[in-house]
Specification:
The complex is a heterodimer of chains A (115) and B (116). By secondary structure, chain A is mostly beta strands. Chain A is 0% helix and 53% strand. Chain A is globular. Chain B has no helices and 11 strands. With 116 residues, chain B is mostly beta strands. Chain B is globular, with a radius of gyration of 14 Å. In chain B, strand 4 and strand 5 form a beta hairpin. Classes of the chains: A mainly beta (115), B mainly beta (116). The interface between A and B is medium-sized, with 24 and 26 residues.
């Protein structure tokens, strides 16, 4: 069965410093992996996705993530945090090889950006 | 492309009442999903449709929950005899069939339900 573990429930950074949000996955086959962002009282917006092409995936707003099969990780990074990045971030896995593309969400990481 | 639209955005109801949420997916998306998100948790899969056919239901979807997509376009999620534990945000999402458009699933802004 698939599962996603987000290692930090809260991360706080200063504006202009790097962001690292950690995610590990468990899957019996090569998964598709995503990062979604959710701003307060808003829906989920796709930041980036990995679907077995390049292992370094670039997304919107300067975010990127690297798929490391040996570590079963898909950490999200950004070189320089902006105040507008404050939100909740979800690491997500999907079974594209199966009958559905049902998404399995992690529990989320709340990113705070200090001025 | 106007995105996935959900209404109402917020609903407060008394325990025992029935509520219905509507979702309008992105046009030409043949897959439609419902998820539930409680405070402090990630969204959990409830059910999904391929056109008008409901192809999978989670065990989270008790007998009090029913979802329909009668013409393969918009969908409704009805909760009968609401309980306080039903308080959550109900998210709708849509996508095209696998292997087209990168399989991206697009979410609406959600419908908040508070049962008092």
């Amino acid at each position: 069965a698939q599962s996603v573990t987000q290692l930090d429930s809260h991360v706080s950074v200063s504006e202009g410093t790097p962001v690292l949000l950690r995610c590990n996955y468990s899957s019996s086959y090569s998964p598709s992996l995503f990062w979604y962002v959710q701003h307060p009282n808003k829906g989920l917006q796709l930041l980036l996705k990995y679907t077995s092409a390049a292992t370094l995936v670039k997304g919107i707003n300067g975010f990127e993530a690297e798929f490391k099969k040996s570590e079963t990780s898909f950490h999200l990074t950004k070189p320089s945090a902006h105040m507008s990045d404050a939100a909740e971030y979800f690491c997500v896995a999907s079974n594209y090889g199966g009958a559905t593309n049902k998404l399995i969400f992690g529990t989320g990481t709340l990113l705070a950006v200090q001025p | 492309d106007t995105g996935v639209s959900q209404n109402p955005r917020h609903k407060i109801t008394k325990r025992g009442q029935n509520v219905t949420f509507r979702c309008d997916p992105i046009s030409e998306h043949n897959r439609l999903y419902w998820y539930r998100q409680t405070l402090g948790q990630g969204p959990e899969f409830l059910t999904y449709f391929q056109n008008e056919a409901q192809l999978e239901k989670s065990r989270l979807l008790s007998d009090r929950f029913s979802a329909e997509r009668p013409k393969g376009s918009f969908s409704t999620l009805e909760i009968q005899r609401t309980e306080q534990g039903d308080s959550a945000m109900y998210l709708c999402a849509s996508s095209q069939t696998q292997y087209r458009s990168g399989n991206t699933i697009y979410f609406g802004e959600g419908s908040w339900l508070t049962v008092v």
